[in-house]
């Protein structure tokens, strides 16, 4: 079964936080946000990420830096046997892990 490797910056990126590595089983059609949810359910429930699409039917809260470019975790598809670097948005005040202040 293929995996997706996520290297997630969990600390404040301004202080030079190092990434934490997670191996996630790949499923057809999964997004990077789905992979984050898998990590929260199966490996580390303390991993913080902003999203509202599943609870408030809102969008644009799961912004992050993915492989050096800003994007929405819900719309970026995972690729089997790939490695992805995910960090919080640099231009926003950091809250925790991938969560930043969007106001």
From TrEMBL:
UniProt domain Succinate dehydogenase/fumarate reductase N-terminal: residue ranges: 5-102
Cofactor(s) recorded in Swiss-Prot or TrEMBL: [3Fe-4S] cluster; [2Fe-2S] cluster
Pfam families cross-referenced by the UniProt entry: Fer2_3
Similarity-based family: Belongs to the succinate dehydrogenase/fumarate reductase iron-sulfur protein family.
Protein name: 2Fe-2S iron-sulfur cluster-binding protein
Organism: Paenibacillus haidiansis
Phylogenetic classification of the source organism: Bacteria, Bacillati, Bacillota, Bacilli, Bacillales
